[in-house]
């Protein structure tokens, strides 16, 4: 969420038209051509960057302006801040055919870094990625002190490795591995010299001090990213950057095939290897080939980071850095153990101790995810109670940390990325969906697409009904989580909830023991197998419906429902399909009263009800009693018009012996009477009656279904004809327009047309049955392709007969 000032600036930037942008580019071009690139130039470039980055689509800049931006980026005398802005603007334009930057090794390393960032943003259109990679490698091969500083080029090399792994040849990969070993293991333990010193400063004051640990103690082991000091030397900066790219490089340069081993196969391999290996000594590691030596040094580096993370940091920023480095260290160890199982034996003791240390620390919760990934990845060889690890992971973390957006994203990503490894633990994941939905309810905009991808793995026949209830109640869960944070005994310094919304009555209800059962059900950590009617809770939490976070969650639910039904239809049997259909009908009038929520959900429920009927046409006969009960009331008809229309259409389509031999004339008659009564009720024009305004599509659907049912039970044809005649007459009444609300005369005309068409069909019962209830053969593709039995031919014949019959009728 941006501040009001930031939102205003973004809005202004998006509203700028092309003509205004063209004039602004002309002004910037004049400023860039001046000898003195002063504050006006800096301010204008900042504004230009805001304009082109504030929209999703590319802004077209004048070619002269683009050329000058590229020229300014290549000027050796240009201030660094201006060059950074020029590079940022050119990156926002990429990919673009108007850019003509090239890699020039004569530029200083800062410029090369900026130029390379633009070239990589272009993609590999003209082999720019390969050219950049080869340029950095030439700098790596050069050990001349006056050469470009690798401090600014190594991050570019890391990006090249990810984008185009095939850029490096074997000898170049070996060289990079050797240099990484040197930077990781042999960085200086003395702090860097000050950039400048005073004439009066003493030689003692200019002497660099030793590197220290996070707790202030002097470092006695090799330098790492967690070592501290006031100033750093070049090789120390390279040490930090080498660790940043270490995992990507290990994955690129590791043995082929090990990363894709099946979990069981890898566990067997690890188990057999652990039975015969022993820890490799560091002295023997010096004799290893470069890649094996790099793995050995990487292992030592990660071990040292884990040891350094035990030290108590003196500053909060250092404490956060410790946790971030722990996450990366565990991920690197996981890669090492997958590539060489001998590292597993040496890693287990420290990782088990680390897990025991961080599992009780809420501040270190993000470290638990890579640890769980490690134990899951290495199976039985890790000799760890994986079930206990995952019970803790899926039970406590979402319940306590749902309000952390970064953790929420990482947690869902962890679930998605490791589905292939869960195996026997997939049941634990599926039963934990109520807890996972807490992340979704609180962070719905950024996590919706992630959950759409995750839902197929979470959906199970045993929990499908409870999951559907939970999805429909997601906005209610958001409101309850908001209240939980508001009532917490130790609120955070910056409130996580909407402070503009005051809901004292909701807070009182949240603390009221009478409602604790409902609130605890909503906040349950696991699937319980039972469902609760939350209507009393909806009434209590109605003041929270206007909360922005609740509104965002309500907007995400229709998308999630579509994903759920796409997944559940793959695993549902006949009984579950019936239960899902009943749930749709039952929940249609039982939804949290967020603005516009019911209308959006009803639209999805109506389409999914038809999908369920298509999947199992016999559903209409099997659920006849429930469908009759649903159609027997007009309460909330206007708000549920789409669902009512779908149910009426399904009855007309599937209540037939063609779809279910159990269909009887008695059932057809019962549905006819119920639909006749419903049509009569919704089309009454009595001023005293508080009846809902009925959309025309409901009326036309009712008339069509009644005609279909009459064609299957010909005793009903006189009643259907009389009803249709009345409807045609009714549409000519002046009050009909108001009855159909905003549809007015157009709706009345549609009803009249449909009534006339259906009346004409009923005058020839055999024709009506052929058109309204076609046989399976008629619906087959052959019937539409064969010139002798083509459906258009049949329809033309029917049309002639109908017209002839109509011509014989008295005027």
UniProtKB/TrEMBL annotation:
One of its GO terms (cellular component) is nuclear speck. Residues 321-438 form the AP-5 complex subunit zeta-1 ARM repeats domain. Coiled coil: none annotated. Residues 450-801 form the AP-5 complex subunit zeta-1 C-terminal TPR domain. Residues 1-279 form the AP-5 complex subunit zeta-1 N-terminal TPR domain. One of its GO terms (biological process) is gene expression. It holds the Pfam family SPG48. It comes from the Eukaryota. InterPro entries: AP5Z1 (IPR028222), AP5Z1_ARM (IPR055450), TPR_AP5Z1_C (IPR056856), TPR_AP5Z1_N (IPR056857). This is Adaptor related protein complex 5 subunit zeta 1. It comes from Macaca nemestrina (Pig-tailed macaque).
């Amino acid at each position: 969420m941006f501040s009001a000032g930031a939102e205003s600036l973004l809005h202004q930037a998006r509203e700028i038209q092309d003509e205004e942008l063209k004039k602004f580019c002309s002004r910037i071009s004049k400023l860039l051509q001046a000898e003195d690139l002063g504050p006006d130039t800096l301010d204008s470039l900042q504004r230009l960057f805001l304009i082109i980055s504030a929209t999703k689509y590319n802004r077209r800049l004048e070619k002269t302006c683009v050329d000058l931006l590229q020229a300014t980026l290549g000027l050796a005398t240009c201030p660094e801040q201006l060059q950074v802005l020029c590079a940022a603007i050119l990156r926002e334009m990429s990919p673009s055919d108007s850019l003509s930057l090239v890699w020039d090794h004569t530029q200083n390393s800062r410029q090369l870094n900026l130029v390379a960032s633009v070239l990589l943003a272009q993609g590999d259109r003209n082999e720019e990625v390969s050219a950049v990679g080869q340029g950095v490698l030439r700098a790596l091969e050069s050990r001349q002190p006056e050469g470009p500083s690798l401090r600014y080029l190594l991050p570019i090399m890391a990006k090249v490795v990810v984008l185009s792994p095939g850029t490096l040849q074997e000898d170049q990969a070996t060289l990079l591995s050797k240099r990484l070993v040197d930077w990781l293991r042999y960085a200086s333990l003395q702090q860097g010299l000050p950039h400048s010193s005073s004439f009066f400063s003493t030689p003692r004051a200019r002497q660099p001090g030793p590197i220290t640990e996070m707790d202030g103690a002097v470092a006695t082991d090799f330098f790492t990213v967690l070592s501290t000091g006031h100033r750093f030397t070049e090789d120390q900066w390279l040490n930090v950057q080498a660790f940043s790219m270490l995992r990507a490089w290990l994955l690129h340069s590791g043995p082929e095939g090990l990363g894709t081993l099946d979990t069981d196969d890898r566990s067997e391999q690890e188990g057999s290897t652990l039975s015969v290996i022993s820890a490799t000594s560091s002295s023997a590691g010096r004799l290893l080939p470069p890649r094996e030596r790099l793995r050995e040094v990487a292992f030592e580096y990660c071990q040292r980071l884990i040891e350094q993370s035990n030290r108590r940091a003196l500053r909060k920023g250092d404490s956060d850095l410790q946790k971030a480095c722990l996450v990366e260290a565990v991920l690197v160890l996981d890669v090492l153990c997958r590539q060489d199982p001998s590292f597993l034996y040496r890693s287990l003791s420290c990782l088990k101790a680390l897990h025991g240390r961080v599992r009780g620390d809420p501040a270190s919760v993000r470290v638990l995810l890579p640890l769980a990934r490690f134990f899951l990845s290495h199976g039985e060889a890790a000799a760890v109670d994986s079930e206990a690890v995952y019970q803790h992971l899926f039970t406590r973390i979402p319940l306590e940390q749902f309000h952390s957006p970064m953790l929420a994203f990482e947690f869902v990503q962890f679930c998605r990325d490791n589905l292939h490894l869960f195996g026997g633990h997939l049941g634990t994941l599926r039963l934990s969906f109520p807890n996972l939905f807490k992340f979704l309810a609180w962070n719905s905009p950024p996590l919706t697409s992630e959950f759409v991808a995750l839902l197929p793995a979470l959906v199970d026949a045993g929990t499908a009904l409870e999951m559907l209830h939970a999805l429909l109640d997601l906005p209610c869960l958001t409101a309850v989580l908001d209240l939980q944070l508001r009532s917490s005994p130790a609120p955070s310094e910056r409130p996580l909830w909407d402070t503009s919304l005051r809901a004292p009555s909701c807070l009182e209800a949240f603390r009221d023991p009478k409602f604790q059962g409902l609130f605890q059900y909503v906040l349950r950590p696991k699937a319980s197998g039972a469902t609760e009617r939350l209507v009393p809770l909806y009434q209590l939490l109605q003041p929270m419906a206007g909360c922005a976070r609740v509104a965002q969650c309500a907007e995400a639910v229709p998308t999630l429902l579509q994903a759920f039904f796409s997944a559940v239809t793959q695993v549902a049997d006949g009984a579950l399909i019936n239960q899902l259909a009943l749930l749709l009908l039952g929940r249609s009038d039982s939804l949290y009263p967020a603005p516009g929520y019911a209308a959006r959900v009803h639209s999805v429920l109506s389409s999914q009800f038809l999908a369920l009927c298509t999947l199992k046409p016999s559903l209409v006969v099997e659920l006849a009693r429930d469908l009759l009960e649903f159609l027997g009331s007009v309460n909330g008809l206007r708000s549920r018009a789409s669902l009512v229309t779908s149910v009426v259409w399904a009855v007309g389509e599937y209540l037939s012996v063609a779809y279910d031999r159990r269909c009887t004339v008695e059932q057809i008659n019962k549905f006819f009477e119920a639909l006749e009564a419903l049509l009569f009720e919704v089309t009454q024009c009595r001023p005293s009656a508080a009846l809902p305004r009925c959309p025309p599509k409901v009326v036309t659907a009712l008339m069509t279904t009644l005609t279909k049912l009459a064609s299957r039970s010909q005793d009903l044809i006189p009643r259907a004809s009389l009803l249709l005649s009345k409807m045609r007459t009714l549409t000519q009444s002046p009050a009909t327009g108001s009855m159909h609300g905003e549809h007015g005369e157009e709706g009345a005309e549609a009803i009249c047309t449909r009534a006339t068409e259906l009346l004409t069909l009923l005058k020839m019962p055999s024709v009506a049955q052929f058109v309204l209830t076609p046989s399976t053969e008629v619906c087959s593709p052959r019937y539409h392709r064969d010139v002798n039995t083509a459906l258009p031919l049949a329809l033309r014949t029917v049309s002639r007969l109908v017209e002839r019959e109509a011509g014989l009728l008295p005027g």
